[in-house]
Amino acid sequence: MNIGEASKSSGVSAKMIRYYESIGLIPAAGRTVAGYRVYTMTDVQLLRFIRRARDLGFSVEKIEELLALWQDRSRQSADVKQIALEQIAGLEVRIREMQAMMDTLRHLADACCGDHRPDCPILADLVNGPDQGSNGGEDERTPASRSEKAAGLQAH
């Protein structure tokens, strides 16, 4: 089958198939005399494996490890389980980080009046960061005025 058919059968875009081939994650496809890539059902199975691993958030490096274990009939399932447990731990960290981001954004959105006035605690936080608090009444839309003000303070 050609790359389009392999893409459709595996759920991996043709662009990603070419990328995976270029980095050596999958072996180079066979070629027709005209130079077109030719894929087998084994190649499609490999691509499905990769797609599913990516869906579960595994990095390319971890997918390489998983592929090696999958292809190694003398593997120990404990090795595969360890990789999965490491992935779970990483996902849990990311979930906590994302929850903290949501909490911060929710707090900032709640603090914003959302009216016709220009004052906006969301923009002030983006400019100053969480530890700086208010920008002292400056219009957060004018970074040049802050730079000029800072330069003026340094000159004194």
Enter the CATH topology name of the domain at 1-57: Multidrug-efflux Transporter Regulator, Chain: A, Domain 2
**Strands of the largest sheet, in order across it?**
1-2
User: Span between N and C termini?
Assistant: 74 Å
Radius of gyration: 26 Å
Main sheet specs: 2 strands, antiparallel
What percent strand?
Answer: under 5%
CATH class of the domain at 1-57: Mainly Alpha
Structural class of the secondary elements? mainly alpha
Q: Helix count?
A: 7
Query: How many individual β-strands?
Result: 2
Helix content: 55-70%
CA-based shape: elongated
Please state the second-level CATH architecture of the domain at 1-57: Orthogonal Bundle
Question: Secondary-structure element order, as H and E?
Answer: HHEEHHHHH
Low-confidence stretches: 135-156
Rounded average pLDDT? 87
Describe what you observe in this structure.
This protein has 7 helices and 2 strands, in the order ααββααααα. By secondary structure, the chain is an all-alpha fold. Among the domains are: 1-57, Multidrug-efflux Transporter Regulator, Chain: A, Domain 2; 114-156, no CATH class. The protein has a two-stranded antiparallel ribbon. A hairpin with a 5-residue loop joins β1 (30-31) and β2. The chain is elongated and about 70 Å long.
